[in-house]
Amino acid sequence: MKYIKIIIFNGILIVALLIGSVVFTPKTNKKAFGVDYVTSNKIFSETKNTVDVIALGDSLVYSSLSPMLIYEKHGYTIYDASTPAQSIYQSYSLLKKIYKTQKPKYIFFEAESLYRRYSFEDDIQNRIGVNIPILRYHNRWKNLTLQDFSTQYQLSDRDYLKGFRYYDKVVPLMKHKKPKAKLQPYALSYLDKIMALTKAHKTKLIFMSLPCAKTWSLERHNQLEKFFKEIGYDFVDFNTLPLNIDWNMDSRDGGDHLNYNGAKKASKYFGKYLAENYDLEDHRKDPKYANYELSLVLYKQRIKQKEMKTDAAPNIDKKEQDDDQKQENQDLISNEGQ
Fold first, then answer.
1. Would you place residue 8 in the very low, low, confident or very high pLDDT band (cuts 50, 70, 90)?
2. d(Cα 314, Cα 303) in Å, to the nearest integer?
3. In this structure, is residue 5 part of a structural domain?
4. 234 within a domain of the structure (yes/no)
5. For the segment 137-183, what is each residue's pLDDT rounded down to a tens digit?
6. If you placed Cys at 69, which of 58, 97, 267, 288 could pair as Cys (CB 3.0 to 4.6 Å)?
């Protein structure tokens, strides 16, 4: 009888978690409805099968690569599916979801996460956060509406920056500790899963290191170059290419991330690199990609307004940027001595 009661209790708990997870999961991809990292989630509002390149990884991605700058020059459709301190498990989980609505030809994966330390407890927390939404979104209880009791999702809110974040702050290069060149076993285990996933979807996976004076070293460069060569994958290290980054003018935080001036340089070179090395189509005259044309107009408006030092740009969510900075600060603390 005792064991039957335990089984019944566990059954009820599982059903409650399942129902609760459906209710508490945000039904839109808008910040006001409790979605974490809105810009990366807005990829699910993109027209089906229109994104040819996904840039996956942490804050180095959304600080360095401006998809609209590249689209303006080359007509390539790119989206930065990046979040602050993105763990490799989160990268894997996000990519699985992306494949439900997109068929990208190329995935560019920022290799920084291969050096990020994670414990068994971190792994469990990552899995719980992704797979049991009620635990992740439990604070939404006071904002629930009738829509939340439905299984219908309205992912209609698009990001005209396509995952990119605009930062114009300038902080000159600061002194940093030399990073350790030790690939983490936890990360490598999920790297195998990501490689298998991209192969299953016939997507070419390319690894990259984006500009970062804090976490880059020649030792890491040589290690990654050798590692990816041995397993048969392309690797491009933008720290070794002639981007003409001036770390006293092109960083927003003393050499960890690029600001907009630095992102322009990185994006220009990234577009050129794509054109010279990969087979991508120019979509600028294709009506199917009208949302990219509209996004380009809005993007130019925002840049112009920013450069004029006004606050009139549309859809600027300062709180979202503040949240990102808080997460990045936590990342700095958790990875000291890397």
1. low
2. 11
3. no
4. yes
5. 545 544 555 555 455 445 556 788 999 999 999 999 999 888 999 99
6. 267
User: Residue 282: is its pLDDT beyond 80?
Assistant: yes
Q: Is residue 149 situated within a structural domain?
A: no
Domain that holds residue 265: 27-112+156-334
Q: Is 135 among the domain residues?
A: no
3-state secondary structure the chain: CHHHHHHHHHHHHHHHHHHHHHHHCCCECCHHHCCCCHHHHHHHHCCCCCCCEEEEECHHHHHHCCHHHHHHHHCCCEEEEECCCCCHHHHHHHHHHHCCCCCCCEEEEEHHHHHCCCCHHHHHHHHHHHHCHHHHCHHHHHHCCHHHHCCCCECCCCCCCCCCCCCCCCCCCCCCCCCCCCCCHHHHHHHHHHHHHHHHCCCEEEEEECCCCCCCCHHHHHHHHHHHHHHCCEEEEHHHCCCCCCCCCCECCCCCCECHHHHHHHHHHHHHHHHHHCCCCCCCCCHHHHHHHHHHHHHHHHHHHHHCCCCCCCCCCHHHHHHHHHHHHHHHHHCCCC
Q: How many domains does the chain have?
A: 1
- Output the six-digit token pair for 44: 């699910």
Cβ proximity of 21 and 133 under 8 Å: yes
